[in-house]
Amino acid sequence: MPNFELAVLYELSSQELFASNAALFGALKAKVSRIFAARRVVLEISGHEIFHWGFGQQRLSLGHSLSSSHAVYEKVLGQEQELGRFWLEKTEPFKDFELRLLDIYCRQLERGLYAIKANQELVSANTRFREMIEHAPMLAIHGFDSDGRILYWNRTAEKLYGFSKEEVLGYKVTAERMGYALHRQFQQVLRNPPAAGEEQAWEGVVPNRLGQQKTVLSFVLPVGGLQQTNEYLRMDVDISQNKRMEQELTFTSSHDQLTGLFNRNCFEQEMIRLEKTGIRCEGVIVCDLDGLKLVNDTMGHQTGDNLLIAAANILQRLFRSSDIVARVGGDEFAILLPAGGRADVVAAAMRIKEKVAYHNRTSPDLPLSLSVGFALREKPDQRISDLFTEADNNMSREKLHRSQSNRSSVVQTLAKALEARDFITEGHADRLESRVIDVARELGFSEHRLSDLRLLAKFHDIGKVGIKDQILFKPAKLSAEEMAEMRQHCAIGYRIAQASPDLVPIADWIYKHHEWWDGSGYPLGLAGESIPLECRILAIADAFDAMVSDRPYRKGLPQKHAVEELYRCAGSQFDPELVPVFVQTVETNHQAKVLFFDGFKKAD
Hints:
It is a single chain. α15 runs antiparallel to α16 (447-459). The protein is elongated. By secondary structure, it is an alpha+beta fold. It contains 23 helices and 13 strands.
């Protein structure tokens, strides 16, 4: 091979790598114009772009058909896949060695185009990867080198830690710049970095710029640097909310949702744990909230819940953190005392009663009543579960002994609650009692029967404590649904009375005090003398007092008009034989008052 051909071959084979197709074409046209005396040159990159030289103002497009009257060399580039097309024109015909050299050069050209394409794909993938990292919604991603200098910091990292890119890029993570906790974590990674192909993962708590504690799940991966500098990519996932939910679930599984005390399951697990670990439990206390069902049935579950919370607060404040205070039933609490002696158990039971009494003095609106029982360890091998059973039995005995006073206390409390709510009928019970007693005396009632009638006058509407205020005090006419609920107060009152020994004798009257003479009343639709006499007397007196009493939305009727209304409803709403008796007592009392005031004026 001639020396000239060898020199040209060497030059064509030593083609450098180019960053772009344009740069490659610039070198190409310089070589072929000098070596082959090329007149025009075209390099078409398949589907992307076209480069040309020697065509003057003519603009070529992709796929342009080329023709020439001169010598032309044309080559499709690419073996496995088409890279493009190389076209060269010269004035003189090609010599054989030129064609051989051009074939060799085209193979070199293919390698150059492959390298550029691979580099472009790598750059594109890197760009897409960076975009993905930058906008990753759940990953706080940041890169750093072996000196702890921040190289990358995405948007989620900005939000999580509160530092912008401008504040951290190029800077080392120092305690002064980003806080002690974050600095300490970075130092731990740098002291023991992950090896190539490995990763480090851990869960920890780090504060953000505002001092808020963030629980993160962190991964650190080694990344090869361009200048052989060790670099690392750290990805943090904020799992603070997951941790809170996990803690809430853990709390819910072991605690009562209403009171915040330990629940029955946790209480039983603690008994098992104490038994297994051999920790002595010298005693168990069991408390029961008296009258809870009655309060729930009459005043609603919200009031009952308030009672439970108040009882729980008393117990929680009384005992040490080492004691186990739990709500073990709907109205039952239990306390394990693993620390202290037998005397401490007895003293604790007494303190419960003292604190309940104090609560009732300071919160008289709805006082608590707790039955308390306890059991002391008598034998070294006595099981805690047996102590609990014994304490529960002792509590039940105390509850039985105190049952009458407990129920009476709850009923009196409900009566006070009704009086406090029923502000529009101030003095109503006293006036009603006076009117029904006057009629009953005319009918010859015994003193015992008069006593029961006084109770009826006072407690006949006690069931209204279980009716919503928006219905009880609604100024407009009640809807059918509201009226149906209002009528439930008879049944509610009956249940309350049945729960109190003092009111049991009048429970039936409370249930039937809204029955009408003609059978159109409620709740049973009784008629005539099947309605208890006491209820018939109360119905007349109650209606009369309602008519003559002032209300916020109207003045009371004159007594004359109220009497006329009683006679009009005699035989339908009222017992026709009782109406004249009632009217007579009213008029007698009225005349007595007139004579009293006349005498008072004359004396004056």
